[in-house]
Write a structure and sequence with these properties.
Blueprint: E1 7-8, H1 10-15, E2 23-26, E3 29-32, H2 44-50, H3 56-62, H4 66-71, E4 76-80, H5 83-128
Parallel strand pairs: 1-4
Antiparallel strand pairs: 2-3, 3-4
């Protein structure tokens, strides 16, 4: 186990989601499973499908044995730092709220003059026929 204490980000995972460099995130720990792909009992396609992202759910859904879990020790790189991802999500949420407010404001700016025009023509129609 190379306990380098290094932390990895979402960008690191995405950059290493290819057959040449395959990182997996399992339980907030990052593993380089590139060399294990050919030995994986379920085939390399299973690993490729989860490469460069959080594979915890897929790993647990299969019900890996204790032996499989022990193999992970050899591929351990470091911990996952999701603070940037959390900050990005918070910023993204704020941006969506702002865009929503702008969109609803834009709708109001469209319907308000339209309502005025309808009222004007209705007034013209009824006052002219009286």
């Amino acid at each position: 186990m190379s306990d380098s204490g290094k932390t990895y980000t979402t960008d690191d995972l995405k950059a290493n989601g290819t057959r040449k460099s395959m990182y997996l995130l399992l339980h907030k720990k990052v593993y380089d499973v590139t060399k294990f792909m050919d030995d994986h009992p379920g085939g390399d396609e299973v690993i490729v499908a989860e490469a460069g992202q959080d594979a915890t759910d897929a790993f647990e859904d299969v019900g890996h044995s204790d032996d499989a879990r022990e193999l992970l020790v050899d591929y351990y790189l470091g911990e996952f730092d999701d603070t940037k991802a959390t900050a990005k999500k918070a910023t993204s949420g704020a941006a969506k709220a702002a865009n929503s407010a702008v969109a609803s404001g834009s709708s109001l700016m469209y319907f308000l003059p339209l309502t005025g025009l309808v009222a004007f023509f209705a007034w013209q129609h009824y006052s002219g026929s009286a």
